[in-house]
Amino acid sequence: MNSIQFFNSTSSGSDKKASKPVVIQESLTIANGTGGVLQPLVDVPAGDCAGYGGQIVNKGCYDLQVTAKYLDGGDCDSCTVDTLTTTCVTFYVPANSVFPVPDGFFVKLLVGTVDSNKALVNNTTAVDVSIYSAHAPSCNGCVAAPASTPAFDGGRVTVQGGAGWSTEINGFPTGGVNVWLWNVDNNFNLSLNGQSIASVQEINMEEGKLQTYLDGGLTADDLIFTSDNAYIFGGFPYDYPSDAVDPLVKVNISAAGAVTVTAWRDDAYEPVKFKNGATFRTLAPVTDECGTNAINFGQSDLESPTNAQVRVFSA
Fold this sequence. Notes:
With 315 residues, the protein is an all-beta fold.
């Protein structure tokens, strides 16, 4: 006698959403003498899916420093707008080993060779490095890499009494960094990662006050208009309205380190220069997102009082 058998209609895994895995598989050879500078093993373009977990294979005689850029702030709720922030995490991979990548969504992995003290050092033999990472997104789409360096704006800050002001930013915007100045009384200095934008220590803007800084042991020069050698705002920069929307002086530091300075006159911004031969330097921004850049604004108080308003923001 024939029988009919009915099977349970709910099979294991039938309630899972079909989802294409996100796979990241990259390799890199760190050539002799180059491992002292971090190099990209993974760099996910903006809009592409971030990696998650995985393992790094180090086929070399050197331990590796891995600096990873992780994302935070995403969820699977379609009714919310994700605001992703980035965090850089550093870990170390022993020589000739397979090492797990810490769990989390990453968009960049930088690698370099280190010595026994975990300090970056140039390698004397080549090192082959590879990564394999795969995960299935748990919600629609995937966690996508954001734009390389998010915009920032430090707002308008009042500096006075010879006090300095500084800020740090992660990475460096493609369009550079703007530093805007209002009602400067009457001098300033500005540096990126400890290097002054000028070949002198102090930039003077008030006519007749340069000797004060020179007598005080500083190198200094006067900032004037390029076209006619006139002083900015008639040589009295502190009279510029502190509540003006537009600044008196604009400084831009490009991603290549070029410094461009202009000043307001007759409803327009004109190039400026130094009166006595000082020059603007080419600086060295740290352009990788996992690096930091320190911007410092200061004023010598040899000629008191000192005041200024400063705004630092991405161009």
